[in-house]
Amino acid sequence: MEDAIEKADVLIEALAWIRQFRGKITVIKLGGSVMEDPSAMTHLLMDVVFMETVGMRPVVVHGGGAAITRAMADAGLQPRFVQGRRYTDDAALEIVERVLAYQINEQLAHEIELLGGRAMPMNFRTTNVLFGQRIQLHDATGQPVDLGHVGKVTRVDRQTLDRLCCEGIVPVIPSMCATDQGEKLNVNADTAATAVAQALEAEKMVFLSDVNGVRRRKDDPDSLAHSLTAEEARTLIATGAIEAGMIPKVEACLETLQKGVRKVHIIDGRLRHSLLLEVYTSKGVGTEIVDDRRQ
């Protein structure tokens, strides 16, 4: 009987959050090592189906780095990175499109449907919703840097995404875009997700990671910060509490907040049902970062 009562208490706690977020858009960025764990992915997609079922409007944006690297190796191509971005020539673009925009994208949408949800793969064979242009970077001397077919999102087809969300369909978006001239471009998944969240005026954006969030003291696993303001996050970067691979994640969160998204979360996607625990419980299991102006 006590177990049954505890389960009821959990549902009651979730009820307040379900009501608050009903009809609100949450952008979920999938990528990294989480996508290499089939069990973790199944539980994350179950969470996405739950969120849609109780009235939230989830939108999934994904990358696929490890799978692309494997496919390039199988083709005898060596990955090349320029200023931290994957150089994408014609041969690499063909692989990125095939693996990211079709294989992974359509498989994710299919798995959501197998779990009882409704999903639409948003790729070049169905309906593309991301449009952009080539990235223009320069080296230390001011000379242009060639990244090949690498771009940034400048426009999102909000009307199509809003319509799908209102119909209870989860859009699944690969991190690629097209130019007005029809050129296909490889896009960093974090920046693609940020562009989608901004365009949709999302309530939340969730970055799924292989760490459980931001620590106030980098060597103390018990110092997890469940909630930070943007200013507190900047201070932790400046003091060195946030370092190495966590810095670009937090900087992506801060950029997302500056674009108008209300809250950004970093959670460990390997933790079973971490998405539900972060969104529908009072304490959460990761770190939420909020804009100082909304405090």
Protein model, in words:
With 295 residues, the chain is an alpha/beta fold. It has a single domain, classed as Carbamate kinase. Helix content is 41%, strand content 22%. It has nine helices and 16 strands. The protein has an eight-stranded mixed beta sheet, with helices on both faces. A hairpin with a 2-residue loop joins strand 3 and strand 4. The chain is globular, with a radius of gyration of 19 Å.
List keywords for this structure.
295 residues; Carbamate kinase; single chain; 9 helices; alpha/beta; eight-stranded mixed sheet
Task: Please give the CATH class.
Answer: Alpha Beta
Q: How many DSSP helices? A: 9
Radius of gyration: 19 Å
- What portion of the residues fall into strands of 2 or more residues? 15-25%
Could you estimate the helical fraction of the residues in percent?
Answer: 40-55%
CATH topology: Carbamate kinase
Number of discrete domains: 1
pLDDT < 50 stretches:
none
The largest pleated sheet is described as: 8 strands, mixed
> What general form does the structure show?
globular
Gap between N and C termini: 41 Å
How would you concisely characterize the structure shown here?
By secondary structure, the chain is α/β, with parallel strands linked by helices.
What does the secondary structure layout of this molecule look like, with pairings?
Elements: H1 2-21, E1 25-30, H2 38-53, E2 57-62, H3 65-74, E3 81-82, E4 85-86, H4 90-114, E5 119-121, E6 130-134, E7 137-138, E8 144-145, E9 150-156, H5 158-166, E10 170-174, E11 176-178, E12 184-187, H6 189-199, E13 204-209, E14 227-229, H7 230-238, H8 246-258, E15 263-268, H9 274-280, E16 287-290
Parallel strand pairs: 1-2, 1-13, 2-10, 5-10, 9-12, 13-15, 14-16
Antiparallel strand pairs: 3-4, 6-9, 7-8, 11-12, 15-16
